[in-house]
Design goal:
The complex is a heterodimer of chains A (490) and B (246).
Chain A lengths: L1 H14 L7 H23 L1 H8 L5 H23 L17 H11 L8 H18 L1 H31 L1 H19 L6 H14 L5 H20 L3 H4 L13 H4 L2 H16 L1 H12 L3 H6 L6 H20 L10 H6 L4 H23 L7 H26 L21 H23 L3 H17 L1 H24 L2
Chain B lengths: L1 E10 L2 E11 L4 E5 L6 H8 L7 E6 L2 E2 L10 E4 L11 H11 L4 H10 L1 H4 L15 H14 L4 E5 L7 H18 L2 E5 L3 H7 L2 E6 L2 E7 L4 H9 L17
Parallel strand pairs in B: 3-8, 3-9, 6-7, 7-8
Antiparallel strand pairs in B: 1-2, 1-4, 4-5, 9-10
Helix pairs in contact in B: 2-5
Classes of the chains: A mainly alpha (490), B alpha/beta (246).
Amino acid sequence: MISTFFDHELKAFWRSKNTGKSIAVKVVMGVLILILFLYVLLFGVLLDEILGAMFPEENLTIAFCGIILVYFLSDLLMRMQLQELPTLKVQPYLHLPVKRNSVVGYLALTALLSFFNLWPIIILGPFIIKVILPASGAGVTVAFIISIIALALFNNYLALYIKRKANLNGWIFLIAGGILALITCGDYLWHIYSLKAISYLFFGNLILKPYLVLLPIVLAVAIYYVNFYYLKGNLYLEELSSKKEDAKSSTEIPFLGRFGQVGDLVANEVKLILRNKRPRSALIMGLLFMFYGLIFYTNPKMGEGFKVFVGMFMTGIFIINYGQFMFSWQAGHFDGILVSKVKFTDFLKAKYLLFNIVSTVAFILTTPYVYFGWRTVMIHFVMYLWNLGINTTIVLYFANRNYKRIDLSKGASFNWEGVGASQLLLSFPLILFPYLVYLPFKYLGYTDAGLAVLAVIGVAFIITRDFWIKKLDQDFQTKRFKIAEGFRNK
Amino acid sequence: MIEIKDLKKVYNGLTVVNVPYLQINKGESIGLVGNNGAGKTTLFRMILDLIRADKGEVLSNGINVAGGETWKNYTAAYLDEGFLIDYLTPEEYFYFIGGLHNQNKAQVDEKLASLSEFFNGEIIKKSKYIRDLSKGNQCKVGVGTCLLQQPELLMLDEPFANIDPSTQFRLKNILKDQNKNHGVTTIVSSHDLNHVTDVCDRILLMEKGVVIKDMATSSSTLTELEEYFGVGQSIASYTVNPEENH
């Protein structure tokens, strides 16, 4: 039975619309995933060097044993945030004469097919083979690897168990998060105990007494069965799904009222963003990007050219991150929009207004970077103008070429739905254009002139926006049947 | 009201809609029937300019709908859930659509109050997003939105399919009222022959993209349609044999 399930699972993967129809897209995606994989692998292979640099006075093995538990703690936190519950897929089997045990077993097994279960092995595995194998022999190495796998499984099922519980009662999630926060604070803030010491206590002893490997195995098996029996007892749709039923209220955004019909459209789109998982995470990602500058600006080696780049991303991340999937966000009701009395030029104006508002907020949020000098804020402002002028128009130009539907109800992590060639093509002009303008001036020694030209071009595009809206509208009219048809393809 | 000339749509070599000429006059109530794949929804979509016609044109009040905007002022349609903005509450959606037709909140509320019987207390103030409503209630929202717009042309694709019997009765009365008392031209498709013959004055029967019958509703229409759809099933077998009826 389980093999039939896996067969269906594979078919679901290959036949799903969002796996991507064109081979080119698949190849590029494959390459991207491979690059990410190689980076993580490289990190794992170089872990001994990195640890040596981080803790120069400590023994490598002690340092390594110390970080394992810390790693798994952050791993658990990540899983609770990002890992998806493999659930609704079983809906078509629930009413059939299939044993509950096989359905639940299938659910538990598919939960293993997560990228999260790969990371610990890639990151920690190479170190074990490079350092522990020569020093302590094969027996200890096997014990280590089994412990790592067992802890990964423990985390896997614990995170899913917490998430399932949290579906029924939102407080569980807060409590679990609170406990994790307390554990972290206990070490780093209050210094009651040291996670590194606890971690070393176990893994250090594991080197001497390899039979201790039984402990993580017992933990993993125990949590597997807790999860298994919990699922078996709660195999009902409303408890499996990640939908929460609470009262929804109508909201108004008075500020947008003054923009008339265009304002109404923006209000709808704001609701779209806040009430759906994937666009909401696009927005939250954008907020996290506000810290992007801290990575670059604290490093004195990074010159001003980087500020142009970083400034563009910080003030325009929403335009890029959310805009690249336009108008797919509205795929679910695109027919309704086309038939309704909304003029497409108004529709475009609403997009511009939305970008204006969010970018302005983002610019205001980046003003604390004045700490790195007024010039930094000035560069941010120039790139803010550039974003409003050029990048909005580029994004909307590519939106006219985007025919992929997005299902708003699905989560964002590892969701390739709606990703197509247009997103990949879009990134080239977004990243290259500002440098095409700025770099020639920079190498001639006129950086100020370069910035000024960027600002002037940005302002020029903002002033001539009506013209671009007209052009985009004409462009859209030639493509709208194709767009609408693509969006209807579930 | 609607004039269709030489309209054709072909998918992968298969003609899904082929209407040489069709005129729908103002104030008519049209019922569109036909088996699955007859081209009803495609025809609806072409009238609403959602699909590009391979050939021919659809004129609404004498103006080609393709690329036009004016027809949107007097046309209201609900084909499927794809017409609803499902992350809004019904109220938000009604106010939005009302706003597009320059109605303020009070005016929208007034219209909604007149629909309260049709909504049967399941739409307004339920604290739910449209996506969390059942299909039948989503249909009520769709039909409600259409009526809110006070259209001259009302198009509904299988509105009876998901709604409960009471709502079916109410919807039939609403359609009759709109047509008879407000002069609204209605085009309704349905698989339920009783409903269409009840509501519509003129029935269009489609098969493989072609309108094969165009008839005014009379007492014999229902039997005629049943004969067409009941292919191979002899209705005679249901008549009681007088020999056995002692």
